[in-house]
Amino acid sequence: LPLVVEGSVPTLFFCVSRNENKIEACGTATRGTTCAIEKTALCRIISILSENEEFPDGSDEISSETREEEQPEQDLLFGEVEIFQTACGIEATMVFPYEAKTLHELALHEFAMKRYDDALDCWAQALGYGDDRLQPYILWNLVKLHLEMGPTSEEHRRAAEMHFENLRPYLQSMQLDGPTGNVLEFLVEQKEWEASVRVAESLGVDTQVLARIYFEQSLGSERPLELLELALSHRPQGKLRRQVYAALIQAHSAICSYERALELSKEQFPCLESKTDIANAYYHEAEIFVALGRTEEAMATLEKSLALLPKSPSLLQAKADLLYLLGKLEESVKLYETVLSMLKDPLEQTKILYTLGRIYHKTGQALKASTYYQRELQTTQKACGENHLECSRIYHEMARCFDDACDYERAINCCEKALKVERLHLPQATGSRRKEVLALIRESKNRIGRIYYKKGDFDSALQSTFGENNALDNEDT
Q1: How far apart (Å, rounded) are the C-alpha atoms in residues 462 and 449?
Q2: pLDDT tens-digit readout, 378-398
Q3: How many CB atoms are closer than 10 A to CB 339?
Q4: pLDDT tens-digit profile of 158-186?
Q5: Residue 438 CB contacts under 8 Å (≥ 6 apart), including other chains
Q6: How many CB atoms lie within 10 A of CB 22?
Q7: What is the b/e burial string over 230-246, where b = at least 16 CB atoms within 10 angstroms of the residue's CB?
């Protein structure tokens, strides 16, 4: 297929042969001409050849030649259109409507030949024609092109993201032709899960890739169970398999599907490798047994976990919690004290101190409980400041202890300290925070009133409840 362009007069020869690359020749000729009509004609020829269409007369060989004669420029234009008609068998009025499509098809050819700059130029021109039907496919190919031109280039990456944003509205309804591995990775990063699955399936990728897509999709989904089960069905391996099992167990536990969670927990052990992973699996299985009311099995499972990590504070605390649940208070308290001595984080320490205070208070040892609350208060003040609102809660716990122990003066003192902290927070508190602070203030004043009432000091009881600052403290929010 030789195609010769001599100056401004095109001489077009088509000697169709199955042994020659007709599209390649037309593409070469198109890049070599500056005439818009010639470009359009050649692009349309490429379109016909790409679609394997026969020429209008059904022949396998077309030969056409025109030569320029001296005539006005307008006649020359029609002469070039005539060449186009001869070669392609279409009406002259259809030249320009085909421009975007033919540019798109030429760009596809250039892309396939890895002439990326030429492909980019053709697609950029095609976009300018505003063909709504063709635009999504041009955008899709521009995304692919930029990802191939520079998968690690920030400039090409931004260009791909820009075109992709314009493509999003069409993504679910269009066919995603010719995807690549770079495109699949890009779609996953963009969280376009349905498109990612379609592309992965069309590429015939390893099932691990699909498992990863379904797992990633489940993390922000309203239907995680369905997606996680799909991920598991693709037989993920290694770390991904462990992640899928852990997420499935958590998801089933969240909806109280404990039997299925227990089944999955037992299934996962063959894929666990490290002692930490196995110990954590036993710990979560123990939690499932507790939820099912099977506390003895929970303790046995927790012991397996501790056999692997005997000095883990979280596992020891879990055992202490379970001992308390089983009514073994002395063992529970002893173990909590052990955990407390191991902890370095003040906030973690306050949780254990609060738990110990609650245990002693519930067993009728109010003054003993108050000592733990006092330690919790000191730790909180040191870590968060003396007027932190959490200090107010601890003062209330201490006041309950002293109230139950009939130590009314100390109980009132704790309530007044709580009230002072609460009033410091009220001016800057807004919204739900303000409601919380006002509720604490009312609780402090009511408790003071009740304690004075117990003492028989009725005037002080009325004054504490209905005295000064009452209008602000009882603001109706």
Answers
A1: 7
A2: 999 999 999 999 999 999 999
A3: 22
A4: 999 999 999 888 888 888 888 888 888 88
A5: 426, 473, 474, 475, 477
A6: 19
A7: bbbebebeeebbbbbbb
